[in-house]
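Below sits the subject:
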Amino acid sequence: MLYLVGLGLGDAKDITVKGLEAVRRCRRVYLEAYTSVLTVGKEALEEFYGKELILADRETVEQEADSILKDAEVCDVAFLVVGDPFGATTHSDLVLRAVKLGIPYQVIHNASIMNAVGCCGLQVLVHHQRKCIVNGGDHVENEKCFVTDNLLYQIV
């Protein structure tokens, strides 16, 4: 069985109860370490979860996914993702590969960056307009800003 477990956005305790139960029963636990920033150290997660974590960088996930899935054929394997498991296409690919190989999987969702938009004073959906938070870069002297309908606005 392959578990894709969202860790949420804060610290080790942001994992859901369902996610923690899955992690604790898994023989192998991979920590995806390239699509998002982990706000706590790997060691803090290992201590709280009671499991050793295997760091999975981009190369491991994209080029060695078969070894992760091979493990999941014979034992329970967790794949931990900061935020929500489907925040990156690589994670969807892992699920599609599992389905193709007949490996059962379960996705355990959690809060993602989309849930944190409100902290910036924005809403996820306002009158069907999408908003994108970007680093201002050259546009606004590195101030935080957002883009809507191709117009750049500074967050105040």
User: Anything to note?
Assistant: The longest helix spans residues 89-101.
